[in-house]
Amino acid sequence: MAVSKVHASATEALAGLLRDGMLILSGGFGLCGIPSALIEAIRESGVTNLTVVSNNAGIDGVGLGVLLETKQVKRMVSSYVGENKLFMQQFLAGELEIEFNPQGTLAERIRAGGAGVPAFFTRTGYGTAVAEGKETREFDGHWYVMERGIVGDLAIVHAWKGDTEGNLIYRKTARNFNPIMATAAHAVVAEVEELHEPGSFDPDHIVTPGIYVQRIVKLDKIDKRIEQRTTRKRAA
């Protein structure tokens, strides 16, 4: 009899997968498509010395920002952290290690990890601090930096729709780091806004096939926040 991938809560979905010192891939872009419920469950678990790969670190008190508050994160691998004051404070105080990546390089490192590619060469970052300590090589008259693929112990992702077999569909901006992260970890846990029965989706619409996903949790509530609200006065 097949074991169900569906779990009643984020805490239950992560049971037995978390440990100190692990490498976690966390999906999302800004505050869009972040696996908030799974991040909260990680905080409640108390695991520490985490290395977290994410485009950004949320904002103060939201997203990965809650793990910074409890100092459960030892090292961040990111491309943008400008919205988080606590992140900056911990970095300047020597409490948090940071590996900055150009955004495209970070995405390709994750994609490469999921595709079984251990390393690749890119022109991005050559001659800058990004290339320090890395192998460089010349191809066709241009210099390139070697970047390693990333494979996590765990990936946590947020999807718009999922079925009980783990097939996932993402919505708009959430379809950025989530799909590639779902291919690049030894275990993948997805939180979904809607949960459907198998066969409900047009196969052409499925972005992440269920073979990649081990566990799923349906969200009871969805908290979608705006990272920066920009407004203008109405015309008279």
Question: Could you explain how this protein is built, in words?
Answer:
This protein is α/β, with parallel strands linked by helices. It has a single domain (6-218), classed as Glutaconate Coenzyme A-transferase. The chain has six helices and twelve strands. The longest helix is centred in the middle third of the chain and has 13 residues, at 103-115. The model has no long low-confidence stretch (mean pLDDT 93).
Tell me the layout of helices and strands.
Elements (H helix, E strand, L loop, with lengths): L5 E2 L2 H5 L8 E4 L9 H10 L4 E4 L11 H5 L3 E6 L6 H8 L4 E4 L2 H13 L3 E4 L13 E4 L2 E7 L5 E10 L4 E2 L7 H5 L6 E9 L18 E4 L18
Parallel strand pairs: 1-12, 2-3, 2-9, 3-4, 4-5, 9-11, 11-12
Antiparallel strand pairs: 6-8, 7-8, 9-10
The overall average pLDDT, rounded, is 93
CATH architecture label name = 3-Layer(aba) Sandwich
Annotation field: number of helices: 6
Topology order in helix (H) and strand (E) letters: EHEHEHEHEHEEEEEHEE
Spans of at least 5 consecutive residues with low confidence: none
Number of E-state strands: 12
| Topology-level CATH name | Glutaconate Coenzyme A-transferase
- In helices, the fraction of residues equals 10-25%
What is the name of the CATH superfamily?
Answer: Glutaconate Coenzyme A-transferase
User: Which structural class should the secondary elements be placed in?
Assistant: alpha/beta
Task: Estimate the strand proportion.
Answer: 25-35%
CATH level 1 name: Alpha Beta
Q: Ends: how far apart?
A: 67 Å
